[in-house]
Write a structure and sequence with these properties.
homohexamer; 218 residues; alpha/beta; Rossmann fold; 2 domains; four-stranded parallel beta sheet; 10 helices
């Protein structure tokens, strides 16, 4: 690992506030002796990623960014894992998607997992992706906050709703670990884990940990 | 994370040489600002773990060690993942098995993976475990060096054989990533990855990276 | 089959009352012309097997008992199937686990099956085991009596609760056969089957029948 | 169980020689104190069952025989399991198919199994059936003797070919148990098991053992 | 395609009224330049197909009809897909079953699908068939009208009940497409699709479209 | 269906020769009384679609074309099924992908299928897609011609190689139907089917048949 090695965490939406929050949440993962954790905003991205068109709109810009910006590893920080395949074609360095990393990390912590989604309509996308990666058989449940992204950003109410959904996933669905189905819930992770008493995995942190592992492996 | 936090990596066999090699291979994962990566030998373990009886013989000693030795996270460093369930019952801290962590990390890097086993007879155990965790559908192949553990320790011949098996997994079976099916092949990882041109995952490093992620998540 | 051939049914908990009830329930399977059905108590076992630590604590004692006590076939009579793999390593005679035998026998009688568990917390263990053996796709439901083992032993209330759970498995979940998820419900099997009108499989009887089949096959 | 209880084993082809061999092979399963094991020939059946039309031609005759002939349990003794569903509709007594019983019994003895088929063209039927019952994930291999039914009846050459196929299933495919894919190989079972050193399951014996278990369960 | 090529749609029950309704519903699929769509009644069939015995009773008559009546392609128009395998043995022309065609067509239109069954007891047959064909993992739900076939024929009440079930499949179970689980609901298809806003697939139309595709492919 | 209804078949590469060949191959599907089958070239597409970047590059242009060009149904005529999800978001009319339609149609014709790919590197994409749609369990084999697209266009040698691969899929892998893994092999379909004696499905024809079915259903 060269002295200036870095892990590039790309926020595919153009909301710089989200990127800043991400940088703060990932600060503990940076090491005095490297690699750095750089968070960047995809300029071409939409302000929020909700529809399939939003997802597709960032795919090629992501691949161009990966080809252009040198890094020891890349993290695509959106729970839809946009452009994962094409970014891997654009570099030989590891490229991690946060949905895959979050789900796979939950599988390393417990047998069956639940997902807290923000909106109902993303659940069908999750199910298709989980079937593609072969993790569907360990899904205990996928339940949404049924809130707008704006609402989730507003604080207290969000945590209460997350806790309610988390309890249902644990007690009704049998989830033994929880994956946060969005990159914007990191700040609630520790408190939610403390309340639920089962592992709660933040997908961005999970992907960065895997990226670190790949870089440190030498 | 307290100042003296540590990740405890437990070598369940009683071969201290293996533990020492592990400590060396994991040195890059330690951080100036913690947590420490402590490698320890399970005194009660057999010199090598080959049979099912060997595996079972370390299960309760592992659980006792986990209950007794405080750590922020634990890694069971044997590719049979002995005692994973009971160790999780013995602590609220994360407990990671290297087989699970290695396989799940490979799944985060590519679609289909191959395993390089040491001996033929362990393959059937892998298959049962992969079916249990739901990863069997992404296994491209599981092939063994067909060498004794002593032989694998002797160097050059081992790497040549690993490369040969790795090429078969990649070219004949379609593996897009490789998992090393043993905790004693770490030193060959980087060279093998360079030769094969696809990700090669060392299971102990993969588990430590996940443990780090859990500890740093705060 | 030699004149003194026997099937050794091992109760891994140290409650001799359970072993005695087992012997009574299995009496009809003994044949005038052999093999005998011998039920034995694992002295080293805990009084009841509830936690993962309880399960692990009997694994090696079971393997030792199997290696020591000669028999034409062995049945591990605990719904957690403790030590199945290692006992098979300890003898060339058939070793049957009651959970596997019970579930597989139900699959031979109907398409989808339900399990009546005693406690909620064992359900997650069942699910993992069913995924490992590939039977999860035919599970209609797994519901627990939510009673202590002591309560289940007390009689009438137990049967009423079993009937209630059995009806829910049949009518709500679509189970076409029921597996009793414990070795202590044998005496209720026939009455439950009569009430429900679908096959009810006692796991110990199912394993003994398979053991008999293996021994008689010559 | 009434004094004159019996298990009715139905040979769906009209070759009485096959039925006689079956009766001989099952003699050890009869008990002095019942139930009897009665083997019967389906008069309406074709001389041999090879095509799909042969299979379908015995379905309704089997259902009529089951409705007409009283028994404590029925075994359909043809590896295509013809008429299993409709026979179950025709009686409340247990109806076992030998393919299902043979495969499920093998699953109770080892992790992955192989099938020795007589002809290549039956393999595709096996695969569809194994997928239907959910056992396909544990199939190590299905290989045929590639002989005519007449040839398999002629003795020595048959056993040699079975041994050859059995070794390939064990050593190349990783089978840890073998299912005989036909009701006419029973006499070779014990010798094949002795040679291969892994369980060899005769499907008719397996089904009769399950039927016995159901009847003796009371 | 010869000038007088035809697709033969076989109604396996002997209710000529059903065949007439089928012919009307399929009229738009006929082409001025062929092939014709001929609907025929299986004389030997029961008036309605409800039990397993009903299903089996039409299998050989269907195979004989297929062998006797020349056509460029055949459609077995009963949601139990009776005799599919044996009819394929009886001709080299394509033979399509409406259940398979309906389900597979729904899979080509959306990710997860639901089935509207007529009666509860047919659901277990659907599940077994879906597991056999490998489509079970995409089933969102299978719910029945819980009406007699006679009631479903009576009109308005049927549509209301279909709409109610369709909404539950869509909103509670997450179905993104609906398959009509019977050949007698064709006339409600378009209205149901318009109300639900997701694809509604009539199985007979789906099979005829596939048959047309095979014939026109040349 | 309005008088001027049409099915729009979109060739996502910009090679107009391919589009012309497609139009010719689909001519038999057009009906005197509609709908028309219109084939169009995606102007923005690359000359050939080989890499993941090529696939992604046509996704948004396809969605725009679908939003802009009115049709009763759309067919995306590239075996990578680019943009299927986003095109479905862009219209309420049916959108069929040829890979999905081809595979699902093969499943309606036989139990296990094989794919003839053009290049080795596309096989891994097929496998991921088949796992996503749940069809992987019925794949007998996926083998490539290992030719460049230019070579495949040159005629005789192509057919010979297709026949060779088709025989291996049928005889070694057990395929009972074949899917052509490319939109440019249509002209060889009938001859290949005649030689192999099992159904050979052209994916574009399969998708157009399904589209016709959806439009004619009314």
């Amino acid at each position: 690992m060269s002295a200036d090695a870095r892990i590039l965490v790309i926020n595919p939406n153009s909301n710089a506030g989200v990127t800043a929050a991400m940088a703060e949440a990932l600060a503990p993962f940076a090491r005095p002796d490297g690699p750095r954790i750089d968070c960047t905003t995809l300029e071409e991205g939409p302000f929020g990623i909700e529809s399939q068109a939003d997802i597709e709109s960032v795919v090629l810009p992501l691949a161009r960014l990966v080809a252009r910006e040198k890094a020891a590893a890349y993290v695509i920080a959106c729970f839809s894992d946009p452009g994962l395949q094409v970014c891997r074609e654009a570099t030989r360095a590891p490229v991690l998607g946060v949905r895959e990393a979050g789900v796979l990390t939950a599988l390393a912590r417990a047998d069956r997992f639940g997902i807290i989604a923000i909106q109902n309509r993303s659940i069908r996308r999750h199910l298709r992706a989980l079937r593609e990666i072969g993790a569907i058989g360990r899904l205990a449940g996928d339940r949404s906050l049924d809130m707008s992204v704006a609402e989730t950003a507003s604080g207290e109410a969000t945590f209460g709703r997350m806790l309610e959904i988390g309890r249902t996933l644990r007690d009704t669905d049998g989830a033994e670990a929880i994956v946060l189905g969005c990159t914007g819930m990191t700040r609630h992770r520790a408190a939610l884990e403390a309340e639920l008493g089962i592992p709660v995995v933040d997908p961005t942190q999970a992907a960065v940990a895997m990226a670190l592992g790949a870089v440190l492996a030498g």
